[in-house]
Specification:
Layout lengths: L6 E5 L2 H12 L1 H14 L2 H8 L7 H14 L28 H11 L2 E5 L15 E4 L22 H16 L3 E7 L2 H6 L4 E9 L9 E9 L2
Parallel strand pairs: 1-2, 3-4
Antiparallel strand pairs: 4-6, 5-6
Amino acid sequence: MERASHAVLGDINPELVNVYRCVRDRPMHLIAELDHHKRHHCPDYYYWVRQQHQLTEPVARAARLLYLNKTCYNGLYRENSRGQFNVPVGRYKNPAICDPDLLQSASNLLQGTDLDEFSFTTVLDWPLSSQDFVYFDPPYHPISSTSCFTSYNRYGFTTQDQMRLAEVFAKLAGLGVRVMLSNSDCDFIRDLYRGFNIHSIQAARAINSQARGRGKISELLITSY
């Protein structure tokens, strides 16, 4: 497959954008920070790191988020109303806190890619055409009362946001842009994207309050082409 001549990756979560920037620009510094976390990891250390909300240095912030994500309960990312990570520590014998080869590989792939903080509606301001491809990966619409993880940050992602996203998808498709979106497999999402190509796929998921609910589940991959 031909590599895109120019790529832009974005998210509304500034902490996630910062992680990608550090992976792209300072992988060795990030690996060193993660190795430090790995050597000190234990429940007490986890909760101490979780309380370090005041960090401003980019690599330290990125390493903190990755460390917490790799050691928290079920790898769940969730913030409270103040934007503070609040997931308890997980029970892992040997969590994969630092994978130098993977981080360096990701850094190589991100070279030349723009990484910015923005909302999905921002793409409507770009001069897009049929030569462009846009992929949306929103917080998935909950399929039950126990699967509602749409509030992964302080902003949340509501049913109204899902509807706004579907409108953006349709507008881009109307311009001839090749658009792809992933979401949960439920009647609400299928109805929102009626008329587009809806593909059901099996994806592995580890986040579920019940162990029997983990494993491969059906998700939707929706395309305008």
